[in-house]
Each structure stands twice: as structure tokens, then as C-alpha cells.
Amino acid sequence: MTRTQDPLLAAVSGGVRLFELGQPFFTGMPCSPNHPGFRMTLIRRHGDMMRPDGGSAANEIIVTGGHVGTHIDALSHVSHDGKLHGDVDAAQAQRGGTFSTHGAENLPGLLRRGVLLDVAAVHGVATLDPGYGVTVADLEAAAQLAGAEPGEGDVALVRTGWARNFGDPTAYLGKETGVPGVTVEAARWLAERRVVATGADTTAYERIPAGAGHAVLPVHRVLLVESGIFIMEHLNLEDVAEQGVREFVFLLAPLRITGGTGSPIRPLAAVSA
User: Fold this and answer.
1) What's the CA gap between 57 and 78, in Å, rounded?
2) Superkingdom, according to UniProt (predicted)?
3) Is residue 59 domain-resident?
4) Confidence check: pLDDT of 104 > 70
């Protein structure tokens, strides 16, 4: 029997290599001071209850904020002057304890072209300096290095190398030292290219100056409120960078948390094997 195969299925059948772009979730992992941390413990262990046939089961309870670990921000996450993206009244939208507009259940699944903008590689370092602000020139140089500039509907991932500090919460959060990240001008460069989403390997995506903490986050305003572009944080871009993969198929399926402001995610990059 002759079967006509979809080109996408044919490409997958030919072999695909997947790269993890997220961090593992574990109790005690680094967490922004603005959000409740991740906690997981077994509430039922094997042997606590035995079935007549000798079977047993274990399960856990998970407590976490929606912006803890590798996650994506919904458009309800940030407002400016009382307005969400599209001039939506934030106070009205959040009545009743969940968002009636821009909730996390509206976060899209993504199967898009992804581009790695490896700014650390542009500077010839493993990790950018604490508090370094990623500029437009940095993104342009990273796009040239990748041989691929992000465009409309794409996903742009910015590597600072900061994921190397994930095992040391104090260093990773960088309260005293600052954390490298995207500047307002660089965010506008991405917005001009009409990317659907962007992410980075840090807590807040954007530059955090030494000692400033997360008091002011103007890049979130530019991307989420003004441009409707989703932000991903706590990515791990080390493996894909080490393998020299800078253009790929980006896969993402957020949890559909009704009325939420974000979702934990497990993003993947796919290339031909």
C-alpha cells in the first residue's frame, strides 16, 4: 500500500538529535527572591501501603511558584501603569484570583525556528562578567557568528554562560555582584525582528546591576507589555553551545495553567542526527 508521508514526519523518521535547554527541578535550586521556591518530597513511599497482590506505589507533592526553575512568562506576568499587553486593565483582569485575560492557559505550544545568540562566545569567554549588559552590537555579532539572524515568529535564545553557576545559588542569583543580561536597547532589537519568544540562561533574563536586585525590570516591560513577546528564564544553553548548534528547531509545550502568570517548561532543541 502506497503511503504519502508528511514532510515533517519524514524529517523526524530520518533521525533527530535532541538537546535539553532547561535545568532540572530540585529542592534548593536557585530561585528569584520574588517567588516561592521549589519543593518536592515523597508523601507516599513504597511499602506504606501494600496491595493484596504485593504491588505498591509511591508519589510526591510538589510546591512551586510559576516562575521558578526553567519557565516561561505569560503576558499577564507584568503590567505597566496598570496595563497589560494590548492595553488590558490589569486590576480588572486579575479579579477573582486568576487572570481572565492573558492567563497561562493561552501560552502557545511552540514548534519554531530557534537561533542561539551566543554572546559569551562573541566575547571569547565561558561566562560574561557579572552585571554585564548585552548590547545591540553583541546580538548582531552573535547572529553573525550563528550565520542566522532571528526573524518573525522565531525563538531567540541569548547565552551569557551564567548557567555554569546554577549549582551555586549565591553566585547564580548574584545579589551583590550583579548578573549579565539583555539591555532595553537589545530587547527592542529583538522586538523589531518580531520574535515570538526569547530566553536566557539567568534568573531574570535582563541585566541586573550589582546590588540592584530585581527592583526594576524594564526589559520585561518592553517584551511582555509593549511587544507581546514571551520570556523564558533559567535556560541551560551550555550543551547546545558546546556542540556548535546555533540554528535548530525549538520545541516547547507549556502547562495550561488557567489564569496563571507563567508555567514550568522543558524546552528542547532538535537538529538532524
Assistant:
1) 41
2) Bacteria
3) no
4) yes
